[in-house]
Amino acid sequence: MRKFNFCAGPAALPEPVLRQAQEELLDWGGRGCSVMEVSHRSPEFTEVAETAEQDLRDLLQVPDNYKVLFLQGGATAQFSAVPWNLFGAGSQVADYIYTGQWAKKAIAEAQRYGRVNIVASSEDRNFTYAPGPDSWRQTGDAAYFHYTPNETIGGVEFDYVPEVSCPLVADMSSNILSQPVPVEKFGVIYAGAQKNIGPSGIAVVIVRDDLLDRAREDIPRSLSWNVAADAGSMDNTPATFAWYLSGLVFKWLKAQGGVGAMEALSARKSSMLYDFIDNSDFYSSPVEPGSRSRMNVPFVLADDRLDGAFLQQSEEAGLLNLKGHRSVGGMRASLYNAVPVEAVQALVDFMADFERRMG
Amino acid sequence: MRKFNFCAGPAALPEPVLRQAQEELLDWGGRGCSVMEVSHRSPEFTEVAETAEQDLRDLLQVPDNYKVLFLQGGATAQFSAVPWNLFGAGSQVADYIYTGQWAKKAIAEAQRYGRVNIVASSEDRNFTYAPGPDSWRQTGDAAYFHYTPNETIGGVEFDYVPEVSCPLVADMSSNILSQPVPVEKFGVIYAGAQKNIGPSGIAVVIVRDDLLDRAREDIPRSLSWNVAADAGSMDNTPATFAWYLSGLVFKWLKAQGGVGAMEALSARKSSMLYDFIDNSDFYSSPVEPGSRSRMNVPFVLADDRLDGAFLQQSEEAGLLNLKGHRSVGGMRASLYNAVPVEAVQALVDFMADFERRMG
């Protein structure tokens, strides 16, 4: 029996997607083999790949002057790819907003290949807010401006898109496809799949055409967006099963009503949980109200000696993976697209019951 | 119904492995979620990862002073990783044997970061043989010696391990786990999974400990074997489903009798096909007898105007993916571990029948 899964990633996938994958795992569309067992260059897989790309383009309304790439290595490989692809034609300084653990990793890698200007940081209040534009100190000649629209660990989300004068780069791993996005305002959007797209092992990169000729000459081939774009993301054998499964998720998203529907659903789910927490003296959210993530909801118990009991009893109640990240402790409920309203209702019900019994 | 699948890669997987993955795809071991939906750092996935590594160590008898890594990006990312990891401490020249398309790609990437000495080449006879050691011109101070034990496209395989005085590096993508290998003679063995290990999207790297401190200082984090080794291949979120499935293949291999049994099976399967071809005037093998691959058997028809009919009729007979690589034409039957003897028998029967009717 399937349980409610609040894992921060690799995260829950839509059940209908898993059911279809299961049904055709040994015999895909009557071909006598699995989708995992055909050449990535075969007509049948090419159709999978192209359909997935088109569906993603439809969902996010990606303009024609952007390439959509399906690459290996997750967002972490892109932490390297961003400076390698954008520091090769002029400026080797970049603006970064420092909002938590993921921004930190992106910054650390960029610093190895150029100069990083920290535009703003929320370290002063333990990464519990998204610093507003009035506090930013931008560089005049930045090659690009990088930010993390949603910090999975801290549970902090930007509720607006920064307005900047150089190419805007976003690690959208944990909130992509949860709302409409004005892609035309971005130079590069990248996202590891394992939160809102598909299984781990594949990453999506959406890059504006004019940024494909700015790579350092000595860029490793596997990091080059230009090489990947020229090869239709098949310069090497792609992660075919992960690509196929991502495509099924895109079809499912379309059937649900697309990213507009996901935006409404995310608002509903996260409000349910935040409202409950705010009305309680037993639970609290460490994140400032204007910056609270719709995707990842960290919360703490007034008495952390009850953490163990909370985790054990919630798991027994069929609510999986509520433990907070090891670097911050407490609890975290991740409410990605595949997590249904019923899961959040069950969580709130459990939390109320736990408070009644233990509070 | 499952058909016989001779795809060169992503290739056939063992049917019992796919059946187990299918059964537990939505509810893995009664946990109420898929193996794709749990954190890579959870105790349950850690066990999957560690068991897979130990089983691979057992199968190949990997000595304790070697790390076993499970990385993303396939062999192609390793074409970059090899020079980046080994050109940082002294010599920036490497010996490469040039035996075909895959060696060519490895060489091209290494040439971007150092000097490549072509030890020997089989280009003179269209890559139809493995050049013997008597023809080699090695460098005295090479950082490493690279070769491709099996060329998937040309169908050429080395039937011995080179004896060299510097670290031996092998792209074993297409014949790993098909025979016992003296790992202690190698510095680095790497292999994309999608032929003899698992689905595409994961690569295995087996590297001797003393080679982990030779990387260029500016190596991109995602290419560093040292970073991966320190993090247990989890510096970024690994391709968890591909890792899990690879682990199931290792268990299946052990149950079949390990790599010794695979060596016997490979000899039997490939001999059946080569003997049939050699006894025919209708079919022929372009590869010299001492260098013929047990994994990939290219063959041509005496009259290539029959190629289309051969491919159409073989597919109708339930024999999939026999078309040769686009760069060489003709046919190719890949006989990896998951391809059963019955498949080869069915292929030979079909070929005999086709010859009778069309010859």
TrEMBL record, chains A, B:
<comment type="pathway">
    <text>Amino-acid biosynthesis; L-serine biosynthesis; L-serine from 3-phospho-D-glycerate: step 2/3.</text>
</comment>
<feature type="domain" description="Aminotransferase class V">
    <location>
        <begin position="4"/>
        <end position="347"/>
    </location>
</feature>
<dbReference type="InterPro" id="IPR000192">
    <property type="entry name" value="Aminotrans_V_dom"/>
</dbReference>
<feature type="modified residue" description="N6-(pyridoxal phosphate)lysine">
    <location>
        <position position="195"/>
    </location>
</feature>
<keyword id="KW-0718">Serine biosynthesis</keyword>
<dbReference type="GO" id="GO:0005737">
    <property type="term" value="C:cytoplasm"/>
</dbReference>
<comment type="subunit">
    <text>Homodimer.</text>
</comment>
<dbReference type="GO" id="GO:0030170">
    <property type="term" value="F:pyridoxal phosphate binding"/>
</dbReference>
<feature type="binding site">
    <location>
        <begin position="236"/>
        <end position="237"/>
    </location>
    <ligand>
        <name>pyridoxal 5'-phosphate</name>
    </ligand>
</feature>
<dbReference type="GO" id="GO:0008615">
    <property type="term" value="P:pyridoxine biosynthetic process"/>
</dbReference>
<feature type="binding site">
    <location>
        <position position="41"/>
    </location>
    <ligand>
        <name>L-glutamate</name>
    </ligand>
</feature>
<dbReference type="InterPro" id="IPR015421">
    <property type="entry name" value="PyrdxlP-dep_Trfase_major"/>
</dbReference>
<keyword id="KW-0664">Pyridoxine biosynthesis</keyword>
<keyword id="KW-0028">Amino-acid biosynthesis</keyword>
<dbReference type="Pfam" id="PF00266">
    <property type="entry name" value="Aminotran_5"/>
</dbReference>
<keyword id="KW-0032">Aminotransferase</keyword>
<comment type="pathway">
    <text>Cofactor biosynthesis; pyridoxine 5'-phosphate biosynthesis; pyridoxine 5'-phosphate from D-erythrose 4-phosphate: step 3/5.</text>
</comment>
<feature type="binding site">
    <location>
        <position position="194"/>
    </location>
    <ligand>
        <name>pyridoxal 5'-phosphate</name>
    </ligand>
</feature>
<comment type="similarity">
    <text>Belongs to the class-V pyridoxal-phosphate-dependent aminotransferase family. SerC subfamily.</text>
</comment>
<feature type="binding site">
    <location>
        <position position="171"/>
    </location>
    <ligand>
        <name>pyridoxal 5'-phosphate</name>
    </ligand>
</feature>
<dbReference type="InterPro" id="IPR022278">
    <property type="entry name" value="Pser_aminoTfrase"/>
</dbReference>
<keyword id="KW-0808">Transferase</keyword>
<feature type="binding site">
    <location>
        <position position="152"/>
    </location>
    <ligand>
        <name>pyridoxal 5'-phosphate</name>
    </ligand>
</feature>
<protein>
    <recommendedName>
        <fullName>Phosphoserine aminotransferase</fullName>
        <ecNumber>2.6.1.52</ecNumber>
    </recommendedName>
</protein>
<dbReference type="InterPro" id="IPR015424">
    <property type="entry name" value="PyrdxlP-dep_Trfase"/>
</dbReference>
<dbReference type="GO" id="GO:0006564">
    <property type="term" value="P:L-serine biosynthetic process"/>
</dbReference>
<keyword id="KW-0963">Cytoplasm</keyword>
<keyword id="KW-0663">Pyridoxal phosphate</keyword>
<feature type="binding site">
    <location>
        <position position="102"/>
    </location>
    <ligand>
        <name>pyridoxal 5'-phosphate</name>
    </ligand>
</feature>
<feature type="binding site">
    <location>
        <begin position="75"/>
        <end position="76"/>
    </location>
    <ligand>
        <name>pyridoxal 5'-phosphate</name>
    </ligand>
</feature>
<comment type="function">
    <text>Catalyzes the reversible conversion of 3-phosphohydroxypyruvate to phosphoserine and of 3-hydroxy-2-oxo-4-phosphonooxybutanoate to phosphohydroxythreonine.</text>
</comment>
<dbReference type="InterPro" id="IPR020578">
    <property type="entry name" value="Aminotrans_V_PyrdxlP_BS"/>
</dbReference>
<dbReference type="InterPro" id="IPR015422">
    <property type="entry name" value="PyrdxlP-dep_Trfase_small"/>
</dbReference>
<dbReference type="GO" id="GO:0004648">
    <property type="term" value="F:O-phospho-L-serine:2-oxoglutarate aminotransferase activity"/>
</dbReference>
